[in-house]
Each structure stands twice: as structure tokens, then as C-alpha cells.
Amino acid sequence: MSRDAAPGAAASSGNAAVADEAAAAPGNGAAPAFRFPVRVYWEDTDAGGVVFYANYLKFFERARTEWLRAAGCGQQRLREETGAMFIVTDTSVRYLRPARLDDVIDVTVTILHAGRARLTIAQQAWRGDALLAEGTIGIGCVDAATFRPRRIPFDPAALGAGVLPDDTAPPGAA
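^ that's the sequence the OP posted. Answer follows.
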């Protein structure tokens, strides 16, 4: 399996924190995988010296946040300018190999499905060519004041390209 592809996606390669044009998400055409490097610190490990299983969810969250930021959609700005925010609605993670102290792992983000108020995202953690963990994360868009579901205030399909075009970006996005 390619280090950049979602489960079942096309093979590709590239550097961290960039959109890889060759990776494709199932059912979403040519959606690139975004990659973000994360270094493993003492605080991330358990008594056995390996990354504590729940910390992969933190790594996935960091990568999604940086993916949105790279697309011109910082979460704080989104909340302030549109009243919308993203919340995690469900997660499923498989753990395949351990990461250890000082490892640098690449965490990928790929959209599997984009709806009006919900995204389904595939994420993977890689150390070199070794897949460490993979998961599917459900993300909902809600009104920040009421936590009621609301429409995503931009075209979520534009996120798959890694950068939001001006006509789909949230207000004030650069």
C-alpha cells in the first residue's frame, strides 16, 4: 500500500505537508492526500516506550487542522467569520505497528466523502514506508453557538485539492 493513499486508493509519493496530485480517494475522483509530519515526544509514549494508542487521534487531529489551514480555512477564523465549526462525530482506527520516541511520522488526510454538513476523512500514520495506523474520521459542521448541524460554508470538494479557490473560500480567507 502506498504511504500517501487512503485504503484502496492509488499509489503515490511525495514530501510531508503537501497535497499529492497522484493520490486518489475512493469515490471522490482525484482527491490528493495531504501529509503532515509529527515527531513523537515523551508525552506521546506509554510505559512500554511506544506511542499510546489514543495519541494517534491527536496526531490525526493536528494533521486535519493543518490541512484546513493550508487550504485557507483556519478553524478559528471559520468560527469567527461564519459561526461554523467542525466536530468529530465518529472514529474508527486500526493499529498496525508501534511508533517510538523521536520517530517522525507522516500523517495523511484524504476526503472519502463530502456532504453538505459532513465529511468522512481517511487518515494514516506512516514511518517511512511502514503503515503504523489508519482510521476513518467522521466530521460534522455545526453552528458554534447552538451545536446544531449546519451546511459547511464553502464547497467541501475544494478541500480535496488542498487549496480553496477564492469563490469557495470562507469569508476573509487569504
